[in-house]
Amino acid sequence: MLAIGLLWVGCQHKSIAIHRENGWYPVTGDSNDSLSLEPIVTTKDFSVLRLDSDAFGKYVIFGQIHPYYMNLWAEETEKAIGKQIAFVFNDSIITSPQVNAKIESGAFVITSSSDKKLPQLYKQIIENKLYSCGITYRNGYILNKKGEIIGNYSNGYIYDTKNDIKYYYSN
To answer: Which of 62, 68, 80, 87 is most buried by its number of CB atoms within 10 A?
Structure first.
């Protein structure tokens, strides 16, 4: 929870001229393109995502970086203290919080003044993550590369074909 308080969030939903992979980017301040070309981490590097609400009842997405990338996240957030980083999805800046401290826990939060759009964004991030692992998500079902149903997804949980919980959304 402490790491979440370390980010001050402003939502822009600003379209980007150059295609970028979905993920977190340093904001450079360059007048031509204010984002680094290289991400700090991508959505493929997320290990946990959870849609929830904040103290004001607004939707937020809480996340965790995969442990393999935690040191990188900590180093990059330390470099960004007093500056902004941006979460980019489908070539749009979703949020660009100011970093107030090094985030060693790997935690992050995605907020938006258009918080009603966050449940759909949450679903899209998960579908994107599953697809990057060679898994397809369609109508609540998880399909392997052959198109066979191997489970389903609901409320942050991945179930097998017997409806036993296999994972909370995680790597």
So the answer is: 87
